[in-house]
Specification:
The structure is a single chain. This protein is mainly β. It is 0% helix and 53% strand. The strands form two sheets. Strands 2, 4, 5, 6, 9, 10 and 11 form a seven-stranded mixed β-sheet that branches. Strands 1-3-8-7 form a four-stranded antiparallel β-sheet, with no helix packed on it. Strand 5 and strand 6 form a beta hairpin. The protein is globular. 31% of the residues are buried.
Length: 118
């Protein structure tokens, strides 16, 4: 079992920056890929970024968001720059095998709200 707890969401103006964090606990964490997803009101949850050995990004955030992980701290981070109103969503931390991390993670956090004002 893996538990994921997000923190760091909030309100920011368009063009600004925000960082969200995810603290993980459980066994075999270093073997899992870690990822961020987001869900905007009225929309389906979508993949944002993932990291294990390499990093992966959705086209919509490439060049603006950076995912990083600290295995010693069992944490994963998402640094978000040049934020746009369309980045407004609940951001979820996820964990699972790298082969399915973009579509079917095994574990989810409870989510943290990120709101970008125009």
């Amino acid at each position: 079992q893996v538990n994921l707890v997000e923190s760091g969401g909030g309100l920011v103006q368009a063009g600004g920056s925000l960082s969200v964090s995810c603290a993980a606990s459980g066994r075999f964490l270093s073997s899992y890929a870690m990822a961020w997803f987001r869900q905007a009101p009225g929309k389906e949850r979508e993949f944002v970024a993932a990291a294990r050995v390499m990093t992966y990004y959705a086209d919509s955030v490439k060049g603006r968001f950076t995912i990083s992980r600290d295995n010693a701290k069992n944490s994963v981070y998402l640094q978000m720059n040049s934020l746009k109103p369309e980045d407004t969503a609940v951001y979820y931390c996820a964990a699972g095998p790298i082969t399915v991390i973009k579509t079917r993670p095994d574990y989810w956090g409870q989510g943290t709200q990120v709101t970008v004002s125009s």
